[in-house]
Every structure is written in structure tokens, then in C-alpha cells.
Amino acid sequence: LRPYIVLRLVSEVREATGDGLRPGLVRSRVQADCYGEDYYLGLAIARQLITAVEGRRVGRFQRIAVDGARDLSGTDIPGTGAAHRRSVDLLIFHAEQRRAP
């Protein structure tokens, strides 16, 4: 089993100003599940993820914040056996993606 991360979009909220206008900024909550062969590897992967993304501003990403982290019970992965999962919640503030007409 190789360590890996699964990202899931939990919610996406368009930010509004006091007058109700949208400034084109979106706040997305993303759950990052970090998997490792044991507790310590899962924890190490999560810590590396946090170090890599917290406070970053890249391209259309205005800011990335860590909103929390928690240990989840071992998970049985078919064909590979048990893995430990550490879940990290990220708040990502980014420019709204324009859709083609």
C-alpha cells in the first residue's frame, strides 16, 4: 500500500458583500483523506499536506486555510489490507471559474 490522498469537495459557497453583490470569490470546503499503512504514516502524510498548502496563494487560489483535522478508524482497502486515515478539512478561497457560453 502506497500512501495517498483523496480530495472531496464538501461545499462551495459564493462570497457576498453587504449589498448582496458577489465579488467573484468562492469559498470551497475540501476534505483531504490521507491514507498510510499505519497511524504514523497517515499522520505524517497529513502534516506534509498541511505544511504544503496552509496559507498558500497560487494562481486563482487567494488563500488556503486548514479548518481542522481528525483521525478516522482503520479502513479495509480491497486487495491491500488495512490502512489508517487522517482527514484534514481545508477552506480554499478562490476566484470563481468562468463557464464558457
Structure overview:
- The chain has 101 residues and is mainly β.
- The protein has a single domain (4-95), classed as Phage tail protein-like (STM4215-like, 2-Layer Sandwich).
- The protein has one helix spanning 39-53; strands at residues 4-14, 25-36, 61-77, 81-95.
- A hairpin with a 3-residue loop joins β3 and β4.
- The model has no long low-confidence stretch (mean pLDDT 85).
Short description:
By secondary structure, this protein is mainly beta.
Keywords:
mainly beta; STM4215-like; about 100 residues; 4-stranded antiparallel sheet
The total strand number stands at: 4
Instruction: Give the CATH level 1 class.
Output: Alpha Beta
CATH homologous superfamily label: Phage tail protein-like
Q: Please summarize the sheet with the most strands.
A: 4 strands, antiparallel
The fraction of residues in strands falls at over 45%
Strand order of the largest sheet: 1-2-4-3
Count of alpha and pi helical runs = 1
Principal-axes geometry comes out as elongated
Helix-strand blueprint:
Elements: E1 4-14, E2 25-36, H1 39-53, E3 61-77, E4 81-95
Antiparallel strand pairs: 1-2, 2-4, 3-4
